[in-house]
Amino acid sequence: MNADDHLAAFCRTLPQLRAAAGRQGLAGELAAVLADVRTGSPVADLLPRLGIPADALRGGYQSVPGLRGRPTGEVYACPWQACDRAVRRQPGGPVPDERCWVLDEPLRPGRG
Fold first, then answer.
1. Count of C-beta atoms within a 10 Å radius of residue 64
2. Does the pTM exceed 0.70?
3. Which residue in 5, 37, 88, 104 is a FRET match for 44, CA 20 to 30 A apart?
4. What is the DSSP string of 33-56?
5. Is the dihedral of CA 21, 7, 63, 44 positive or negative?
6. Model pLDDT for residues 56-81, shown as the tens digit of each residue
7. Residue 9 in contact with residue 61, Cβ under 8 Å?
8. What Å distances lie between residue 71 and 5, 13, 46, 78, CA to CA?
């Protein structure tokens, strides 16, 4: 996982991380970490300040106390909802360039 992947995973989980930091009295430290991230510091190097192991972002999800599960990503589906065709986009992955086979229109995003 590269630095961009770490940043993307951190970004995806930031709302839950803010809630967990608030519950654990770490809101100020999270604000300081965010300030450092904005100046270009690597996310993985800053996580231990929040009590999170530096490798917690490996695999594209946070294993932070109080947070559960994986991001589900998106599903791109029929623009008319006429069929059950679904093209899954992995969290942080490229947007599929697939088109509807009948309408020749881009598939529409939804949650997977």
1. 20
2. no
3. 88
4. HHHHHHTT--HHHHGGGGT--TTT
5. negative
6. 665 544 445 544 444 456 788 888 88
7. yes
8. 14, 8, 21, 22
